[in-house]
Amino acid sequence: MFFLLVVAGQASARTYLQGVVSESQGFSFETLSKSATAAREAGHLQKAIEYYRRAVQLRPDWTEGWWYLGTMSYDANRFADAIAFFQKAVVLAPNLSDAWTFLGLCEFAQKDYENARQHLQKGKALGPSGDLDLDRVAHFHLALLQIRNGAFTGGARLIASDFSKAEIPTQAQFALGLAMLRIPLVPEEVAPSKEAIIQEAGHLAAQSFATATENFADVFPALLAKHPNAPYLHYAYGQYLAEDSREQEATVAFRKEAELSPNSELAKTSPEIIPRDASALQRINAEVAAYYSDSGSPSATDLTAGDPWGLALQDFALHKYSDAVRHLTAVVKAQPGSGTAWAMLGLSEFELKQYDNARIHLQKGQDLGWGGSVDSVRDARYHLALLLIRDGEFERATSFLVSDSDKDAATLRQEIRFALGMALLRLPHLPQEIPAQDHALVERAGEISSLLYESKYDLAFPKLKSLIAEHPATHFLHYAYGTALSSLSQFPEAQKQLVEETRISPGSDLPYLSLASIDLKLKQPENALPFAQRALTLAPQSPEPHYYLGRCYLELDKPQDAITELVAAARLLPGSPDVHFQLARAYAKTKQNEKATQERETFQQLNALAEKQRGRLGSQAYGAAGSDHSNSGISRPQSESNSPH
């Protein structure tokens, strides 16, 4: 399945009770129940399940026993067993909302969608569980099932109600995309080839919760140009226009929706597109489901005789990428946990210039674990880095490229060096889109980027100075030099370079953020304040300006103003440990001790995770793409792709 959020496990293990009864002894219910509790609390789940099973045989009306059998089976992904146990629990305790919720989640995992919808709805109707994570998981899956059942508006509202406007995660955005495009499917039923458009639509829908409608009416045309035949995309555009009181334009969009498929039920609807007749709705929903599920494509079982994996490998080797995509689609449906298959699908889509889908599937391959030869893994990582650069995620791309290289700038593969140069110069393109006259500049920038990552400043700085002398007006060269100098605490020279960058790139918030960071390090928050304010003006939807402005206010003894900005940063980037650390300080200053404690705990959890990631990836003094503030737990937003080049 697309994903299933896992609810936190049971209580931490305690000391295991001494003298647990042996198998040969006769068990009383009291002995069994105590042994079961002791085993569960000690983390011996298999033994606990055995004791609970035997206890409920002696006392079938023991609700607690059935409950724990269900939750332990759920945690072990043994959903069929868990369903049987929770069914017993809800009979004995029909008002126990958690039991209905877990029953529905297990049924969802088993693809028993109708029962899952009914039981998740029952759990919701009985009231919140008291566990925010469980309720959010339940609401999300209920929303998916409502969407699958054709209740698109209700499903979208349920998702929106559970997440703040600025922190809707990727999976929830995908569900919003399903709702916007009126796709009666759950994510795992969607064809890989259609994931990109749904994700884009969902991102747009998520943004619409926090931004004025008129802004999104201007964004839609680009999406329509990329996917002109996608069912209900013109309809969604018309909805936004109508909400903005642009009735004539909305009517054009609605009519365009009806004109797209003259032989389709979609064209036989009313001017408002959605008919009132239930049977017509069912026919249209079936059409849309077929479009997004690629039901006409061969299934894994259809291709079994021909070995779809072998056929995919053969087609890929022969550069027959369309055929490879067809076979790999069958493979990933049959083996959704194969990172290698997802990566290969992404590489094939890249060759077909289906870049949005390629990024999604290469990322999925990375998350699941790439297999294959060293060269094939390197190729997948390189292509994912290119797509990250294309989308403006320069720091992430650079970390991929550097980890892929032998970290010797002199022998660096030419294509890696070129991509590193694009990232340093913040060029949101693919390599073939760079004009020929700029190739030498980009390659030299890439060599410098590699040297900076290796902290070989004695070699990097002369090359960087020379490049700046030859190309003094090139965007982000001064920024790269300034942030590298800052990492060595050469602050006066760093400030000169960054101020020069503000002149060359007045529309970028990056140099202002670095200037604010330097002044904060120098204990000069009054100097940092205008830089942070300017950065916020340039990038109000990015977390970094809010973070640095919050830090300025905190150091200027304005903790309430600091809280406002840091809370905004946390909503935009909830996974940053530094944001929560500063929030803890701000709450402590305002005597909000409970909130301060919560923020400290969040910081400790996120910091421990960040330490693990740093240990796995290694660390460099220069940092990602040379940004000293990028090492603080604050990463560049995905939308940073407005290079003037």
Short description:
Mean pLDDT is 83; it is low at 1-24, 296-305, 616-632 and 635-645.
Plain-language structure description:
With 645 residues, the protein is mostly helical. Among the domains are: 165-296, Serine Threonine Protein Phosphatase 5, Tetratricopeptide repeat; 304-372, Tetratricopeptide repeat domain (Serine Threonine Protein Phosphatase 5, Tetratricopeptide repeat, Alpha Horseshoe). It contains 31 helices and no strands. Helix 12 (233-243) packs antiparallel against helix 13, helix 26 runs parallel beside helix 28 (543-555) and helix 30 runs antiparallel to helix 31. The radius of gyration is 28 Å and the shape is globular. The relative contact order is 0.04. Residues 1-24, 296-305, 616-632 and 635-645 have low confidence and may be disordered.
How is the CATH topology of one domain named? Serine Threonine Protein Phosphatase 5, Tetratricopeptide repeat
Which regions have little confidence, pLDDT < 50, spanning 5+ residues?
A: 1-24, 296-305, 616-632, 635-645
What is the 3D form?
Answer: globular
Average pLDDT value?
A: 83
Q: Architecture of one domain in CATH?
A: Alpha Horseshoe
Largest beta-sheet characterization:
none
Class derived from helix and strand content = mainly alpha
Number of strands: 0
Question: Termini distance?
Answer: 41 Å
Keywords:
Serine Threonine Protein Phosphatase 5, Tetratricopeptide repeat, mainly alpha, 645 residues
Write the layout of secondary structure elements.
Elements (H helix, E strand, L loop, with lengths): L28 H13 L3 H14 L4 H13 L3 H14 L4 H13 L3 H13 L6 H17 L3 H11 L7 H11 L14 H14 L4 H14 L6 H11 L3 H13 L18 H16 L14 H10 L3 H14 L4 H13 L3 H14 L5 H17 L3 H11 L9 H11 L14 H15 L3 H14 L6 H11 L3 H14 L5 H12 L3 H14 L4 H13 L3 H14 L4 H13 L3 H25 L28
